[in-house]
Amino acid sequence: MTINNAMASAARAVQLRAHALRMVHAVNASHIGTCLSMADILAVLYGGVLNVKPTEPEWPDRDRLVLSKGHGAAILYAALAEAGFFELEELATYCQLGSRLTGHISHHVPGVEVSTGSLGHGLSFGSGMALAMKADGHPGRVFVILSDGELDEGSNWEPILLAPHLKLDNLIAIVDYNKIQSFGTVDEVLPLEPLKAKWEAFGWEVREVNGHEHEALHSTLAAIPFSSGKPSVVIAHTIKGKGVSFMENELAWHYRSPNAALLEQALQELGCNS
Amino acid sequence: MRTRFIETLCRLAQEDERIWLICGDLGYSVLEVFRDRFPKRYLNAGVAEQNMTTMAAGLAHSGKIVFTYSIANFPVMRCLEQIRNDVCYHNLPVKVVAVGGGLAYGTQGYTHHGVEDLAVTRVLPNMTVFAPGDPWEAECVTESAAALPGPCYIRLGKAGESTVHEDRPAFRVGEPIVIRTGSDVTILSTGGMLVSALAAADFLQTSGISAGVVSVPTVHPFNDEAILSNGKPSAYVATVEEHAEGGLATVVAERIAFGGYNTRLIPLRLTREPLSVAGSQEELRHLKGLSPQAIASTIQNRLSP
Fold first, then answer.
1. Strand A184-185 relative to strand A180-181, pairing
2. SS3 of A103, please?
3. Residue ranges of domains in chain B, CATH in brackets
């Protein structure tokens, strides 16, 4: 079952990458690198992990997903459209005048719970949701996707401190640890290591995983909560720009958008038709 | 005011299980009554106002009505972006309560002077801004805040303020409350300055000046009725507030300009210059021209230069 899921979600991840590349190309948008680094994570989440109903986005018993790294909006929109929350054709409106698909993630889009864009908000928002769901005996879980760079924000360490105290084992943080932030590598700007030990010291149950291996992601996320009574964190080791050779591990692709020729090359590398 | 606030909140929470209270590790000798009666709907988030505010948004997103509570600037300024993005943009029922607004913590220094809060909260989307003038008004705005579907900010005094209203006033969100009428000038007061505004009107009376007093417990939205008298603009309107630029005087100046009213504005307020000396609330008010005598004197000078 896991292997079948992994094959399906790996194929889905290729589609998500292709959508995001086309979307940022069309409007000369930034942030393709961060989209590509979490493509596999989103493909797995929407490939059987998240308990959601695309035809009923407000279904009360749903799992919640909060994208705290809101600048990765393009590929989450793609994941939601592929999942059936809205029509795939709408992806072409991304960042166009009047579109609800804004450059940072918007709660006006079906399937998006929370608007973010300023970093360091999502984990607190998810903690509040998880606390309410616990209080109500709600079956759902709350997943929050964080970037590595946003862990510089002191505001993140407030919920990291509080969530274990509240025993929020329905809260799952996923760190997209691609090792490159806005103006340099994480090690150059503000090192996070030992990151696993930091989360553990604060009282979280930590799993480290290759964020591009679908089987590993599926099996890790299937084991939530990792420890009853404790919040879970998945440190997903990823590659910024993953899947497009000339974008991988290149800071410039936090900002650059592929021109027509580079889009063509990128899609060919992914095995997609332009 | 804070006592009436918590009494009212307990009463409301008894009737409505959606009501929660989160504090930022402040509220000693005030919040215990809520904590003990509703332990499952009470949380001390620790000294962490950003998390307190956005967690409140997350709770509200899940169907709760959440009051956040701390003193003076802490629940507002420290977490202003959390209020803007997470609470206001999502239009969630989070009610930010600041106790000790204005100069209530006078001796504690500028960090504890909540004197720009109305300016920054009143411009946020979906936000309703309350600054009650006495315990009765505090009760009314707490009820309204709980009932309104969106975000609210409530600036409270501390404890022991005089009761101005003999009984529950006729209160509606956004509506001014006329305390007394007068023909020469209308004094608009917001927050804890109401008693001083009334005393100033008494002083003016002894000088033969007839001053009306209107309480403005809702700073936003603001109803122009407060600056109209029998449907016509008052010739003189004085605003009295424990706040720097951007508060009630600015609101009224905008309304006068936008309405094209032939009204002279007499702003009695603080400046943006920080108060960097110690002093009790009353002493600092005196220092900044906000004692009843000084208010009356400023108004009298403007009316008969």
1. antiparallel
2. coil
3. 2-155 (3.40.50.970), 177-303 (3.40.50.920)
Which residues of chain B have a CB within 8 Å of the CB of A127? Answer: 51, 54-55, 58
Residue A259: DSSP 8-state: -
pTM: 0.97
CB contact under 8 Å between A118 and B81, yes or no, is yes
Query: pLDDT tier at A262 (50, 70, 90 boundaries)?
Result: very high
Least Cα distance to A80 among A96, A57, A49, A99 occurs for A57
Residues of chain B in contact with residue A133, where contact means CB-CB under 8 angstroms, are 62
Structure-token pair, residue B197: 């505004």
Instruction: Spell out the alpha helix ranges (H) of chain A.
Output: 2-27, 32-37, 39-44, 73-83, 122-135, 154-165, 186-189, 195-202, 214-221, 260-270
Nearest chain A residue to B47, by CA: A158
pLDDT digits (tens, 9 = 90+) for B71-114: 999 999 999 999 999 999 999 999 999 999 999 999 999 999 99
For residue A168, the Cα-to-chain-centroid distance in whole angstroms is: 20
Q: What is the DSSP string of A161-178?
A: HHHHHTT-TTEEEEEEE-
Q: Do B51 and A155 touch (CB under 8 A)?
A: yes
Question: What are residue B252's phi and psi, to 5 degrees?
Answer: -70, -40
Q: Is A128 on the interface with B (CB under 8 A)?
A: yes
Chosen from A118, A125, A167 to mutate, greatest number of chain B CBs within 10 A: A125
Are the beta carbons of B62 and A129 separated by less than 8 Å?
yes
Q: What percent of chain B has pLDDT over 90?
A: 96
- Residue A41 backbone zone (phi > 0: left; psi -120 to 50: alpha; other: beta): alpha
Q: Check CB contact of B89 with chain A, cutoff 8 Å.
A: yes
Distance between CA atoms of residues A129 and A163, nearest Å: 11
Confidence bin at B144 (pLDDT 50/70/90): very high
On chain B, the residues whose CB falls within 8 A of the CB of A120 are 50
Crossing angle (nearest 10°) for helices A73-83 and A2-27: 130
Which chain B residues are closer than 8 Å to A159 by Cβ?
Answer: 51, 55
CATH of domain A2-270: 3.40.50.970
pLDDT at A273 over 90: no
Asked if B270 reaches chain A (Cβ–Cβ under 8 Å), the answer is no
Residue A43 to residue A75: CA distance in whole angstroms: 10
Say which of A117, A125, A138 has its CB closest to residue B58: A125
Neighbouring CB atoms inside 10 A of B180's CB total 15
For residue B192, give Cα distances in angstroms to B123, B181, B299.
21, 20, 19
Read off the pLDDT of each residue in A67-82 and give the average, rounded to a whole number.
98
Residues A24-44 as b or e (16 or more Cβ within 10 Å = b) = bbbbebbbbbbbbbbbbbbbb
Q: B274: cis peptide before it, omega within 30°? A: no
